[in-house]
Amino acid sequence: MTKKIRNFLKESRPDTPCLVVDLDMVEANYKDLTRALPGSDIYYAMKANPAGEVLSLLNSLGSYFDTASIYEIESCLDRSIGVDRIGYGNTIKKKRDIAQAYDYGVRLFAFDSLAELVKLSEVAPGARVYCRVYVDGTGSDWPLSRKFGCEADQAVWMLREAGERGMVPAGLSFHVGSQQRDPLQWHRAIKRCAMIFEELSRLGIHLTMLNIGGGFPANYSQSVEPLNVYANQIKDALERCFGDKPPRVIAEPGRYIVGDAGIIQTEIILIAEKSREPDRRWIFLDIGKFGGLPETFEEAIQYRITTLYDGGPTGPVVLAGPTCDEVDVLYDAAGYSLPLDLSAGDRIEILSTGAYTATYSSIGFNGFPPLTEYYI
Predict the structure, then answer these.
(1) 6-16: per-residue pLDDT in tens?
(2) CB-CB neighbours of 345 under 10 Å
(3) Which of the residues 76, 150, 241, 324 is marked catalytic?
(4) Per-domain residue ranges for the chain?
């Protein structure tokens, strides 16, 4: 937690639950990435946190933007972000949304199936398209390899088809999985893509762009390597696979830019001891899966937690949300242990929650309002 956030919580004492994001840290994280990957274009994955304050800040820093829907595109346009800095990176789009984006002036689109390519060719003539390739997401806490991507041989013939349909076959993309802790996964994915580049070149199609996706990790409970370790693997792979003629490289970080910049403050509603589990306390918070913490599904993302009593004696806990849904349990098997001095009414902080929290928050389940946000 930054000093700026700590002072805000102390002086303002906002109602809970709330998300507080330090924009200075967002800026620092963005600049760290640009230094770590010189020559690469950073397309902020705005699905991680589409707050206007974040978009405006990154726009002022020269960021590009990866969008997943026509609504995200319009949010960018509302903040005077140029269409030449917007990519439509979702491989699943309504035909009318493609047409609307094209009408706005967007010219960069992703696909990973023939059906999607056909839609693009019909309503976005001459657009630059890139094909998302399947890669192994081993090592990530939030894999993205089942729903998205195609095999290498499919990418080859579909990019040929794109050219035949009057589109510009621009390049390839991949995603090694969100919160990817294994730096070698980028190396393997780049090598796989380089082989596709080579195959298409033999067929007379010369791709110019490689989108290496996101996946750069935030600091949750499990340790991660410093950013430069991941960046060095990427740069080494690009040099080994493409030599002195690398393609234009696009990166789509979201979690890395905003994750560590935010914290959620939440209040303990109830601490209960259940007779069938006498050795563990159940701690119920005023935020749960439906209020902004859905990435605790199957305990995939394990956030760090701080309390006023850190350093004192602790005991095992189950952490749960406030709703009447049985699935609204955050951590059970993960083995969290929190101070024994905690009581109902105490506030605790859930760290590194600037990404994929407020943007996931439900509207009105059990009558609870969406997560309140502060950008400072």
Answers:
(1) 999 999 999 99
(2) 8
(3) 324
(4) 24-258, 262-375
